[in-house]
Structure formats: structure tokens, C-alpha cells
Write a structure and sequence with these properties.
The complex is a heterodimer of chains A (308) and B (444). In chain A, strands 3-2-4-1-5-6-7-8 form an 8-stranded mixed beta sheet, sandwiched between helices. In chain A, 49% of the residues are buried. Chain A contains 11 helices and 8 strands. Residues 1-8 and 15-21 of chain A have low confidence and may be disordered. In chain A, strand 2 (137-142), helix 6 and strand 3 form a beta-alpha-beta unit. With 308 residues, chain A is α/β, with parallel strands linked by helices. Chain A has helices at residues 10-30, 39-51, 56-71, 78-92, 119-132, 149-160, 173-186, 204-220, 239-250, 269-277, 298-305; strands at residues 107-112, 137-142, 163-165, 191-196, 225-233, 255-259, 281-285, 293-295. With 444 residues, chain B is α/β, with parallel strands linked by helices. Helices cover 56% and strands 9% of the residues of chain B. Chain B is built from 20 helices and 8 strands. Chain B has an 8-stranded mixed beta sheet, with helices on both faces. In chain B, a hairpin with a 7-residue loop joins strand 7 and strand 8. Chain B is flat. Residues 356-363 and 430-444 of chain B have low confidence and may be disordered. The chains are: A alpha/beta (308), B alpha/beta (444). The interface between A and B is large, with 48 and 54 residues.
Chain lengths: 308, 444
């Protein structure tokens, strides 16, 4: 989804201002006192990354890389190390050129994730932004499991004045998706947003259910631009990697939406996800307002990540 | 990705064994392994730091270097220390002498407050407490509907004034209704909010001042990473919490957040939630979570689950048969049925120590395997089940058709069954329980 808004990332930027000084300060406060790079210096760098949830494996990899560079004399002082680290992170997070929203065809976004990551809210935000571009979105309430999930989506649909395809609670999620795809095609909608029930990736039968929903969409709208997007909560720790891995293996994931970045969590787990699984981050959620869903920007994200 | 701490430590020590002694450096390496395991379990890095220096002190005191099984001993020290930190005994809820006892649930968006509210209500109902649920989340669309639906499912009374009344007002009226209706307990479901949202935290404070809850419980998602400490300390400082509820423990998150928040706030963890069903809220057992954080599985919960579903008489019979080496397909079937009654097979296997290694090898346990096996055995005649030797080609073809599988599947099952019988024979000879105390030195 292409979002061209000039007042980008206000909340993130507030944190950014402090970022550079902070980390540099922290690193330089250790370095001058030392004649050589001792183990606990690296422990400090590790802690900065781990503290942002970058994950143990990726952190160790990054730090041993830095160590190697310092040993070879390629990096000499804290600012250099910081710049290099930032560059490394940006490389991992390299931006994908592929845009989510394609013109002249139906775009189907299947929104999946574990419980409580903010799938329904994200869908409302996406629908709002699609509408802002004078395109036609349709919602599909395939979360037929959680109590009042359908009502929640309907409230949003009403607020945004868009159509929402839904069945009763307990209905077959694939059947709802089937109807929604046909509704979207018949009404010449541009975007179909499918809300699914939150599920822990450890329940195989629920993962199978999602696979079926996806199969139905592929069958019924073969020409549509179908993207399966995994919603990940920025407060998630290492489990985020497992989530992404299992969803990727069973369902296939085209991108990640990182939500709840407006708290103090820095969402570093997406770096580990990118590093280990190569799933690109597409959008980030930075607040409760309908405007608070933004296109992912690796540079800004990295700056914010390394801030205290 | 979750390396088993024990196997990693064993690996470290295996290398050492050839040398025959352990020095300071070896202990450093061991502590580094423990540090990584805790970090992978999402324990906050500051908490890990203190924890490790604590452990170092303990290890030095016990003269671990002279031990013959240093890895086991270190694990025991780590485990005990974890249990100690998490609070030795399960927390009991004490009810107010002047009812109703008021529980107020607070937390971030999506941590599971509303579901937990219903589960807690069900828990209290089971304890014969007359409980009223109050829906004070007026912000999230349809949150009130959600709680109402859940209340209807578990038949617990529900109180709401709709989304137009202020949460403080809803809380006040709800509690006064509970008092006049002679309720024993009240559960207050509040809207999810960020721990840095001053305005929303003030609202919680106003509710607190209005109704004076006996328990303000912070609902924490087990999957939470490093930020758990910020969340918990912020809620604690600005609103004041009495304890915690951990949710979504039915996933494979190791739940290190429990340790982080406990050691930062000092507040006890009262409950843990293990699933989507209303009966999935349980009392929090520190030793079980400690095992889980270390990647040891949750054997005690498994034993409890097994006790719930397994008929002791029947188990005894099977045990006798095992000893006499007369295991039949019929027994095999009833064991599979018992196993499946305990819940999703994957969840059970996760509780077994050592088996999460299976998962990392991408050999996930397929629930369908058990369904298929059940179907195959059920397609056999009683005689065939008792004596698998009579299963000739004809019979196998009939069974395959009857259970909707191929003959190869039937053959495979019979082969596996034969192998199992062989293993059982060996067990009979050794006459030892596979999961004895020796297996887990740290268990009481």
C-alpha cells in the first residue's frame, strides 16, 4: 500500500531525536575507559539489541560480525561501530520494491495472526486508507470463532461506510470468504480485506482451516492479487519467529504488518524474522487512529530501534 | 530454535569430561549457555544479568567442580532459583469478609483481558462464588457484546450500561448492584490501554478510587518480549497492581515474561491461561513455569491431565498385560483414545521434556496419524484385534477399504505395533518406569 503522508512517524520521530546521542553516548561511555575491547563491552552492545527484542541468534550474529571488523581494524570508534551496525540492520530490512496494492484488478488481503495482535483494527485502518484513495474496499468477517468479532468488524464497516460480508458466529470461515470473493468480484471492488480468527500457530487443525480459506480464494478469484499478511505485535519476543515460521510453512506469508509500535516496545523481532525467514515487513501500526498505519521504512525503523 | 538447555549444558560438559576436571572458564561457558537460554525464553536482559550473577555465587558455594554430574547439579540450582524468584507456592485468592470481592483486570490491548474475565468468572463459579461480570470497555468496538456472549455461554450474570456511559460510572453502578444482589465476587473488565497513555491510566486510577478493588490484576501475554518489564512497572507505578495473570500459555512461548515482571514488580502471578475454552484458566504453579522457561516441558500438568482422563482400573489391566507381554491392538486403541482425550496431541507432546527437540527437526506430530490409526483398528473384527497374526492379505484389504486408507497404511501400522511390542518386551525385562524421579533430579 503506498502511503504518501508528509507528517510521517511523529511518534517514532520523537524517539528518534534522542536516539543517536543516546547510543553513541552509551557506547562512548564504555569505550574510552578501555584500552582494548573486552568481553563486557560486547555484552553491552548485545544488550542494546536484545533489549529491543532483536532475538538471540541474530544478535549474536551481528555482534560477532562487529567484533571481526574491530579486530581487523576496520572499525575504530563508537560512532563508526554504530553506523556500521545501523547499516547492517538496514541491509537485513532492505525494502522490497513490490507494492501491495495493484491497479486494475481485485486485491485480496488475507489477514492472519495469533490472538490479540490487532488484526481487526488493522483491517479497519487499511480499509480507511483504501477509501481515501477513492478505491472501493469490502470487508469479510471470516473470524467466526471469537465472540463478537463479527460485530466488531461491522461497527467499523458502518463507521467507514463500506460493505462487510458476514455470516453468523460459528459459520465456516471458508464459506464467508467464498461469498466475500464473489461479492467483491460482482461489485467490482478494488480491495477485499479478509479478517480471520486469531489462532496460536501450535494448533494444526486451525492452521488447516486457514489453508482452506486461502485455497477457496485462489480458486474463486484466480486473477486477483492475493496477499497473505501476518500481523505481529511489536511487544512479542522470540515467539514471533516461531509464529512467522509456522505461518510461513503452512500457509505462505507475503508480508508482515507490525502493530502497536506506539508503546515502548521496539519490535526488533521483525529483524530476526527478516534475517531468518526473509519475510518482508510491509506496514507498521503506530497508534489507534485510522491514519496510524504506515508504510514500513527501514531507515526510520532502525533509528527508532536503536534509541533508548 | 529452542535448544533444550539441558542438552546444551550436557554438550558443554561432555566436552569437559575427557579432561576430568572443571575450571573457572568452564563455569563461565556454562553460565553463558544459561544466559542464552533465559534470553531465548524472553526473560528481560537486566533480570537475566542479576540472575546469572546470583547463580554464579551459588555455584561457587556448592563446589560444583567436585561433583560427578555437574550439569545436573547446575540445572538444579538454576531451577530452584527460578522457582524461588517466581514465588515458591501457588498464590491463593483470599475473599473479602465484606463481599463482594472485586477483581479488576487491566492490561495492554490484545493481552486477553475480556476472554480472561470470562474464564475467571467461570473459575469463581466453580468455587461456588456468585459472580457478576462488569463490562467497562467502552472503547473497542463490540467489546461489550463479546463479554455478553461469553457470559451467556458460561451462564454468569453480566452488567453493562452500554458504550455511552463512562467506565467509572459503569464500575460504580455495577459494584453497587453486586452489593445489593449479594454477590460474592465482581470482575471488572477494562479497556486495553498502553502503559504510557497517561489519560487512560488516570481513568483506571479513578475507577480504583471509586470502587476500591481487592485485586487489580495485570493481564500479560506469555509471548511478550523484553518490553514486559516496562509494561508491568508502568502499570504498577501509575495504577498499582496486586498481581498478574499470564495468558496464551497454550502456545509454544516459553513465558520468560513471567520471570521479568515478577522480579521487577515483586507482584505474584495468580493465574495462567492455557486455551480458548472457558475452563482453561488455572492456578499458576511457579515450578511448572520454571521448567517451561528452561525448556524442560511441563510434566506435572501432563500428569494431572492424564489423571483426569485415564481410568486407573484400565491402566492397571494394560500394565499387567504389558508385563505378560500380551498387548493387543485393542489395548493400543484404548491408549490412543486416552491420549487424545487429554487434548491436542501437539500440546501434550510439548509438555514432555526432550520432545520439543522433535519439533525443531520439523517432525511435527500429526494429529491425523492418530485419527487414521483409530479408524484402522476400528475397522477390524474383535478377533483380529486380539490376534493380529491372522491378518492376511484379504483381511488387510478389507480393513484398508473400511477405514479409507491404503493397504500400505495398514501394513505400516501393524509393523509399528510389532515394534512397540518388542520395545515393551524389553521394558518388561528391565522392569523400570521410564519417567522416574531419576529422570528429573530437580523435581519434588
Amino acid at each position: 500500500m503506498k502511503i504518501t503522508d508528509e507528517k510521517l512517524f511523529e511518534k517514532l520521530k520523537r524517539r528518534l531525536r534522542k536516539s543517536r546521542e543516546n547510543l553513541t553516548h552509551e557506547l562512548s561511555s564504555i569505550f574510552p575507559r578501555l584500552t582494548r575491547f573486552e568481553e563486557h563491552v560486547w555484552e553491552k552492545v548485545e544488550e542494546i539489541l536484545l533489549g529491543a527484542d532483536v532475538g538471540v541468534t541474530t544478535t549474536i550474529k551481528l555482534v560477532s560480525n562487529l567484533k571481526e571488523k574491530v579486530k581487523r581494524g576496520e572499525l575504530k570508534n563508537p560512532p563508526e561501530i554504530l553506523e556500521y551496525l545501523k547499516g547492517e540492520l538496514i541491509t537485513i530490512l532492505r525494502k522490497e520494491e513490490d507494492v501491495l496494492l495493484k491497479d486494475n484488478q481485485l486485491n485480496v488481503f488475507l489477514i492472519v495472526g495469533v490472538n490479540g495482535t490487532g488484526k481487526t483494527t488493522t483491517i479497519a485502518k487499511m480499509a480507511h486508507q483504501v477509501k481515501q484513495k477513492n478505491l472501493k474496499p469490502i470487508l469479510c468477517a471470516s473470524d467466526t470463532f471469537r465472540a463478537a468479532a463479527i460485530e466488531q468488524l461491522q461497527v467499523w464497516a458502518k463507521k467507514l461506510d463500506i460493505e462487510c460480508v458476514c455470516h453468523k458466529r460459528g459459520a465456516n470461515p471458508s464459506a464467508v470468504a467464498f461469498d466475500a470473493v464473489h461479492a467483491a468480484l460482482a461489485r467490482k471492488a478494488n480491495v477485499l480485506l479478509i479478517d480471520t480468527a486469531g489462532r496460536l500457530h501450535t494448533y494444526l487443525n486451525l492452521m488447516e482451516e486457514l489453508k482452506k480459506v486461502k485455497r477457496i480464494i485462489e480458486c474463486e478469484a484466480p486473477k486477483a492479487n492475493l496477499k497473505t499478511l501476518l500481523v505481529v505485535d511489536a511487544t512479542t519476543g522470540h515467539n514471533g519467529i516461531t509464529q512467522a515460521k509456522v505461518f510461513q510453512e503452512t500457509l505462505g506469508i507475503d508480508g508482515i504488518i507490525l502493530t502497536k509500535l506506539d508503546g515502548t516496545a521496539r519490535g526488533g523481532i521483525v529483524i530476526a524474522i527478516q534475517d531468518e525467514l526473509k519475510i518482508p515487513i510491509k506496514l507498521i501500526g503506530i497508534g489507534e487512529g485510522l491514519e496510524d498505519l504506515r508504510e514500513f521504512n527501514p531507515d526510520e525503523f532502525t533509528e527508532a530501534l536503536l534509541s533508548e | 530454535m529452542f535448544d533444550l538447555l539441558s542438552s546444551r549444558l550436557n554438550e558443554t560438559f561432555r566436552k569437559l569430561r575427557s579432561r576430568g576436571f572443571i575450571n573457572e572458564k568452564d563455569i563461565d561457558e556454562t553460565l553463558r549457555e544459561i544466559r542464552l537460554a533465559l534470553l531465548e525464553a524472553d526473560v528481560n536482559f537486566k533480570v537475566v544479568k542479576d540472575f546469572i550473577s546470583n547463580i554464579r555465587g551459588k555455584i561457587e558455594k556448592t563446589e560444583i567442580t567436585k561433583s560427578l554430574t555437574p550439569s545436573q547439579q547446575i540445572i538444579k540450582i538454576v531451577h530452584d532459583e527460578l522457582v524461588e524468584l517466581l514465588g515458591n507456592t501457588p498464590q491463593k485468592v483470599s475473599y473479602s469478609s465484606k463481599p463482594p470481592t472485586i477483581f479488576m483486570l487491566v492490561g495492554l490491548q490484545g493481552s486477553g483481558k475480556t476472554s480472561t474475565a470470562a474464564k475467571l468468572a467461570y473459575f469463581l463459579k466453580k468455587q461456588n462464588k456468585k459472580t457478576l461480570l462488569i463490562a467497562a470497555d467502552i472503547y473497542r468496538p463490540a467489546a461489550i457484546d463479546q463479554l455478553k456472549t461469553l457470559c451467556e455461554e458460561i451462564s454468569v450474570p453480566f452488567f453493562s450500561l452500554g458504550p455511552k456511559t463512562s467506565p467509572v460510572e459503569i464500575a460504580r453502578k455495577g459494584v453497587s448492584e453486586a452489593s445489593s444482589g449479594f454477590y460474592d465476587a465482581v470482575i471488572l473488565d477494562t479497556a486495553g490501554r498502553l502503559h504510557i497513555d497517561k489519560e487512560m491510566l488516570d481513568e483506571l486510577l479513578r475507577i480504583k478510587q471509586e470502587v476500591h478493588p481487592h485485586y487489580i490484576l495485570l493481564v500479560v501475554d506469555a509471548m511478550t518480549g523484553q518490553d514486559a518489564v516496562n509494561i508491568a512497572s508502568s502499570f504498577n507505578e501509575q495504577v498499582g497492581i496486586d498481581g498478574l495473570i499470564m495468558t496464551k500459555l497454550d502456545g509454544d512461548a516459553r513465558g520468560g515474561a513471567a520471570l521479568s515482571v515478577k522480579s521487577i514488580t515483586g507482584k505474584p502471578i495468580y493465574f495462567a491461561s492455557f486455551g480458548e475454552k472457558s475452563n482453561s484458566l488455572q492456578i499458576f504453579y511457579p515450578d511448572r513455569i520454571a521448567s517451561r522457561i528452561l525448556g524442560f516441558g511441563d510434566v506435572l500438568t501432563l500428569v494431572e491431565k492424564a489423571e483426569e482422563v485415564i481410568d486407573l482400573e484400565k491402566a492397571k489391566q494394560i500394565e499387567d498385560k504389558l508385563k505378560k507381554q500380551e498387548l493387543t491392538l485393542e489395548d493400543f486403541l484404548s491408549q490412543i483414545e486416552d491420549l487424545r482425550k487429554m487434548g491436542p496431541v501437539n500440546q501434550i507432546f510439548e509438555m514432555l521434556p526432550g520432545l520439543d527437540k522433535l519439533k525443531s527437526n520439523d517432525t511435527r506430530v500429526d494429529e491425523k496419524y492418530f485419527v487414521r490409526t483409530q479408524a484402522i483398528i476400528q475397522s477390524m473384527t474383535p478377533e483380529e484385534r486380539k490376534n493380529s497374526n491372522i491378518l492376511n492379505g484379504n483381511r488387510r484389504a478389507r480393513i484398508a477399504q473400511g477405514s479409507g486408507v491404503t493397504i500400505q497404511d495398514v501394513n505400516q501400522l501393524l509393523k509399528q505395533f510389532e515394534q512397540m511390542r518388542k520395545i515393551v518386551k524389553q521394558f518388561g525385562k528391565i522392569n523400570r518406569v521410564p519417567f522416574g524421579k531419576k529422570f528429573f533430579p530437580f523435581m519434588k
